Every structure is written in structure tokens, then in C-alpha cells.
Amino acid sequence: MTERIVDPALKRRSRTYAAVGAALAVVLAVTAFLLLRPGTEQGPAAASAPGTGAEGSGGTLVYLDAEIIAAGDIRNGTWQSTTLTHNITDRLIHADPETGELEPWIAEDWEISEGGLQYTFWIRDGVSFSNGQPLDAGAVQRNLQWQAWGDPENGIDPNNTFPQVESVEADEEDQTVTVVLEEPYSPFIKILSNWASSLVADETLELSAEDQQRPENVIGSGPFVVESETYGEEIILTRRKGYSWAPASWENQGEAHLEEIHWIPVLEDSARLGSLRAGEGDLIRYLQPSEEDPLAAEGFEVIGVQGSGQTNTWVLRQSVEELQDERVRHAILSGIDREAIVEDLYTDRWSTASSIVTPDTLGYRDQSEKLTYDPERAQRLLDEAGWSEHDDDGIRVNEDGDRLTIRALIDVFDATAAPLFQLIQWQLAEIGVELELVEVDYSNVSTGYSDESIGIVRTGWPQADSWVRIRNDWHFEGSNALFLQEPDEQLNELLEQHSLVQGSEREEVVGDLQDHLLDNAYVFPVLTDSQIFALQPHVRGLSWTPEARPVFHSTWIAED
Amino acid sequence: MSRSHYILKRIGHALLVMGLTYLLVWTIIFLMPGDPVRNRLDNPQNPVPPEVAEHIIRYYELDRSGLEQLLLSVTRLFQGDLGYSLANGIPVTELLAQGIQSTFLLAALGLAATLVISAAVALTAVFAPWGPVRSAAAVIPLLSLSAPTFLVGLLLLQVFAYQLGWFSSIRDEGLKSLLLPAVNLGIAASPPITRVLIQGLSDAQRKPFVNVLRAKGLSEAAVAAHVVKNGSIPTVTLLGLTAGGLLTGSVITEVVFSRTGLGYITDQAVRAQDGPVVLGVVMLVAGIVTVFNLLTDLLYPAIDPRIEIYDKSSGRGAAQEKTREKVDS
């Protein structure tokens, strides 16, 4: 018997070939399956949408959000929680998202006394919470007291955008509520249109902080009611029967059109997008800018909504020595090409900011000229500031040989922040400024903001009254979030003044405030805050709050 | 040492492990900067004035010293109170109950998928009559080990949910909803088991008893059965560990398939630095892993009678004697 002699190396090699061949075969088979599979319909509404029909006929909207509603209490400021609040509660005042005009809602009318200390509200008749409790003057009184003073025993802090309130009285006979303030506070009426000022039933007011966090426990008078919640999985909203107290400017004056809303968090971007494409979801929030146009080309509607209020702004914090020099701050403003950022990273649903607030904000004053990209000016300013030499990396150094390095905290609230910060890092390197990017996770965001060695952080989100937040944040006696080393008296005066005066006088003050902030390059407005939604074409009648939260009261599902 | 004594000692060890785990995790959480309450109070989107913040910190008893907080936490633990989530106000026990239910179902099916995949691949790699098929099968564990779990999950969703529409990617369809994530888990968890099984089977195949069996004229199938029985011991160890691991939840699989099991809850809690929930999850997981390790140890003798819990009265010699008898028979 002859024995075949096989070279062991050859044997090993042939085994490897076989293995690689088999692996390739598997990959090819999967690819072939994907490519040659029988044509399945893709694109908008490939699957049948639940509940179809003409306006007013009901149906179910499946809303896939990018974030989970951890807590549903009305003070919770997260984007997703405030959207829920807006759809299940009402407020005394309504702010028109188009005009910003304030109109009556649960308060039929209101009157502000001479001197601005006393506010009287006339409460609309016939409104009730979903548990049957009438929303009358007494209920409003208890809500306003709870807002103004909080409930420390139950772990509830006061609404920090509220004025200092001396008293809140209710007249059951006339159905009026009278609020007396300790000092004039012109943003008060606007503040009452904000989500945090939503009206809730006594049953909710009496609960502890933990119990108020459960969405089911938030009893409001809004067009939808929380039917059930499975934490992290789904919140089901049902239409509030008999709802008939929408603000006068709303198209739909009766009950909501939709029978139900299934509010499902799908955290994985591609899973959310895939579910929309497969027709399982009707509406999704947030997609990567690179996905916007392809999705629109497939026939989905892609909407970028820009909320009214503060823009996405960088604070140039003076806790860092380098940024205490005004010339360095101005150089940063001139050294960043914001147009290129929008062009390279975003789509036309995004835009650069022209001030620290959006143009529809009271008292907006255009600051674009101070934000023009001018690298020569930036270089000149840095030379003048003593950063005239460059090291081997091209980074500027001063006469002591210190590099011009500034640490910037990557924004955790914006899903597009990482590429945005990286592009700015690259742009600033061109003028010899090294931006060191610091990354923290969501749970450590407050630690990041309190780290004084960090020179740049993001601020600015849509708000009912931006100037209140700006005063709280930037006043030297407040949070001093600009980290000024000594008080800027002019800034403090402007911040104090604006809430004490009304109308055009207030517009003038906040206009001057914007000039002052940009003239001193305390802050750098980058972009307007855009929220991107994609929806099936059969979703109609979606509307928005001024802060860009979707309102589903007029929404309906059309026949495909 | 009697068997019951041995078991009691193991349980004692397990409890010690749990106690130390609690202390360690508690200390880490306490020492870590930031927590959801302070994050809420110092949130740059909505900062709370210091005097109000003080009230709130007192409400959550975060103003107490570390030792006081630990004592409070241990006292409550013995009363069965794991506290509330600081991020969403849900009692920790309720969150864990929700998570374990979802995870248990998924883990059971995931383990089944792991077993099926591992067994199929290993048996093919060892017993397939054609060389190239054996080699190809031997490469599969490497392939599935290199494939990122989230990618495999998304691919499964892409094909079976989005393209073919056989499954819903977002709705709970009962048992059906478990299939894709279970396969995903199976693919992710199988490579080490498959490798060990292949190794075990190959080693067993080369043992002298196989020649004895063949010499006795047994069929190849019967020989293979003996080989499988002898070669799968290390696999059982690994399977026990895997089951423990699967039961503790898979963050990636649960997030991709939008299932709110323990992995998902852990992910959310860690992101929000939600101390009570993290502590609760870790304790539960420590308990599960400890129990599975114990079960694995107790399962060995059932598979291979040669392995016995060391018993002074019978001694090692007796065990060897028994082995010889078995092989001779």
C-alpha cells in the first residue's frame, strides 16, 4: 500500500484556503440573499398604517422618539418630557408659535396693575382635569402657589423662572386669581405659557417628587391623557373626551383628532430610521444630517423646526486666563467660519445664529456683522495679544513659551456636537489656537460645567422667556456662568433692568444687552437649535409650540 | 466533609461575595462625582438656586455623611427596600422586576440559541466527513466573534423586520419578539462555547477509550455519542457562566431591539449615575452569577460520575477505582 506523503505546511495552507473560501461563500450568500430577495416594498407607508381616514376620524399615531422619558413631571426640562407635558396639560396663557403673541387660554383675560406688581387672571369656565376635578380659580391658586414656593417637604423646588411672589388669592365668586409680586417682573405672563407653568390637578400637586415623576400621575386638562406607561417601552396617550378649551388660534377647537398616540423610545438611530422606513412608525425625532436628504428623496417629509429663544451659543469663560483677554475672545469669534460649518456638516434645515436669541424673540438685535469670518483679523488680534510666535505644531505661543490651548467641553445635549466641535477645532488650529476637546457623559455634565479649567461650554436652548434664563445665568450675583473675574456693572444693570420694564423699553434694554455681550465677545452664537423630524406623508396637521415641541391636538392620519 | 456541609460552605461564600460586592459598589457610587439629583440641580439647561438646592439635597438625604448613608441604605435593604430611582422615581424593586422578567425570557431563548449554534458548528467541525467542511465550520466561531453584536442585531432587523416584515422592530409580539434578539445573543455568546466544545471533542476523540470502543465493534454514531459525553465537560462549565451572563442582561442586544430588560435598565442607570438602581442591578446580577456558579459545580457529577465532590470517607483512590470499572465495562 502506498502512502501519500503530504507536506504539513501545504496541508495547513489548503485548510486555510478552504476556511476562507467557506467564509466568503457565507458572506456572498447573505449578500446575494439581500440583493436578489423578492422585491419588498420600501418607502413611505409600505406597511399599512393603523387607522386611516379623513380629518377628525381618529386613528393612532406611532411616535418614535430618540430619547426615553425617564420622568414626566412638569418641571422636568428634558426635551422629550416637556413635549409630553405640552400634550397632556394646558396653561393659563398661550404663546402663538408663529407670532409669539400671547393669547388667553385657561385665563380668559388678565390685567396688570400700574407699577406691575399685581396680576389678576379671569379663569375660563367649564374646564376640568381628566380626573373630573374642575379647573377653577381655586385650582389655579394652588398651582401658582406651588410654582412660586415649591413644596420642600415633598422634594419639590420652586419654579426658578417665577418672580418673587408675595401672595396668591382666589375669588371663587368671580373666578379670579390675584397674584401680588414683591417687585415688577415683566416676563411673568410669557413665563405662564411655558411647559413648567402647566396646570395640574390637586391629586398631582399633593404627590411627592418621586410620584410626580410617573407620567401616569400627571393629571392635566390637556387634549390627551396618559393611559398607561411601561418604563422605557411605551407610553400610550388617549384622546381626552369632551376637550373643548383649545386656545382660540388653534384650528381644531374640539377634541383631538387622534384616538391614541403610542410614544415609543427607540434609542438606536438606525433602528428608528429602519422602523420608519418599514412603516412601523409614523413620526420620528432626530436623524443624522446625512440621512435627511436621502429620506426626503424617498418621499418622507423631513422637517427642521427651530425653536424660539436662545440659540446654540458658546460661552467663552473667563475662569481661563487666556480668555480674560478680550482680543483672544474676539479672535475666536473671527476665526470660526460658521457658514462653512453649516455647509459641511448640516443641511439647509440648519442655520447659523445671528445673535444669542432667535429673530422671533422679543428684542432681538442682529449681531451678524460681529460674527463674520475674518481670519486676518483673528491673526492680527492674537499677535497683538502677545501670542505672536508659533511652535512646531503651528500653535501660537507667548513669550514664556506657553501654548495657546483652550479646553472645550463637547455638548452632551446635541447629537451632532462631536463633528461640530471637531470642525471648529480644525478651524481654530488654522489661526494657531489649539482647542482641546473634553468629553463627559450625560451623567457627569454638571461636573464638566463646574470645571473651571474648561474655557468653552455650550449654552442656549429654546425657552419661553430667554432673558430670564440669561439673567439668572450671567449676572455676577447669579450663577456668573461667564466666570467674570470682577463685576461688569453695565452688564449687570442691563440684566437687572429688563425684567423691571415693559414693552418697547424692554426691547431696547435687551437689544443693548445683545450688543454689550457681543461687543465684549463674552459669548459666541454658533447655530440655531434645530430639531429634525421625519414623518410618513399620511401624517397631517402636526403643529409646534414656540419651543419646537410637536403638538398633536390637530394631527390626523390621512388615507393613503 | 459531608455534601450538605460543602453546600452550606459554598452558600456562605456566596453571601460573603454578595456582602462585599454591596460594600464595594456602594463605595464606588458614593465616591463618584455627580448624581442625578445634583445633575438636576446644576443642570446647565435649568440650574436651581443654591438655597432651593439645599432643601432638595436634604430631601434626598444626600447631606448626611457617607457612613450614615451606608447604614441607612443597609437598614433599608434588610427591610426589603432598595429605594427609588433618582432619575425616574420608580421603586428599584419594581424596575428590577420589570427587567428580570424581560431578560429571563430572552436569556432562556438566547441560551437555547447558543446551544444549538455551538452544537451544530462544533459537531460539524469535528465529525463532518469532508475536510473542507470541517475547516470551514471551525472558522465560524472566529467570524461570529469578530462580528460586532450591534451590527449583527441591525442586520437581523434589516432583513427579517424591515425587509421581510416577519417581525416588528418596536412592538412586543410576545414570544415572536424574542426570536431575533435570541439569535443575536446566540451568535454573540456561542464562539467561546463552540471553540471549547470543538477542543473537548477533538481531545476526547484521541483518547484511548475511543479505540477500545471501535475495537468492540461499536458503530461510528455510538462512538460519537461517547465522545460527545466525554468531551463536553468544559463546555458545561462555560455554559453555566454564559447562562449567568445572559441572565444579567445584554445592553447592546436590548438597546438594538428596544427591549427594557436588565441590560437596558443598567445602561440607563449608569448613564444617569442613578445610584440606587445601579446598586440594585449589581446585587441582583451578583446573586444570579453566584447561583449559576454553584449550580455548575453541583452539575458536574451528574454528567461525569468520575467527578465527585471530594469526600474524605471514600477518598481519591475509590474514585479512581470507579473510573476504571466504568471504562472496563
UniProtKB/TrEMBL annotation, chain A:
- Entry-linked InterPro entries: Peptide/Ni-bd, SBP_5, SBP_5_dom
Membrane spanning segments where?
A: 16-36
Q: Which intervals hold domain Solute-binding protein family? A: 101-463
- Provide this UniProt record's keywords sorted from A to Z: Membrane, Transmembrane, Transmembrane helix
The domain of life for this entry's organism is Bacteria
A Pfam family for this UniProt protein? Answer: SBP_bac_5
- Protein name per the record: ABC transporter substrate-binding protein
Q: Which organism is it from?
A: Nesterenkonia massiliensis
Automatic annotation (TrEMBL), chain B:
Localization, UniProt:
Cell membrane
For the ABC transmembrane type-1 domain, which residue ranges apply? Answer: 100-300
Q: Which family is annotated? A: Belongs to the binding-protein-dependent transport system permease family.
Q: Which organism is it from?
A: Nesterenkonia massiliensis
- Swiss-Prot/TrEMBL keywords: Cell membrane, Membrane, Transmembrane, Transmembrane helix, Transport
Q: Where, by residue number, does the polypeptide cross the bilayer?
A: 12-32, 104-130, 142-166, 236-257, 277-300
- Principal localization reads membrane
Which membrane topology term applies here?
A: Multi-pass membrane protein
Going by the entry's taxonomy, the superkingdom of the source organism is recorded as Bacteria
Q: Which InterPro entries match?
A: MetI-like, MetI-like_sf
PANTHER family attached to this UniProt entry: DIPEPTIDE TRANSPORT SYSTEM PERMEASE PROTEIN DPPB-RELATED
What protein name applies here?
A: ABC transporter permease
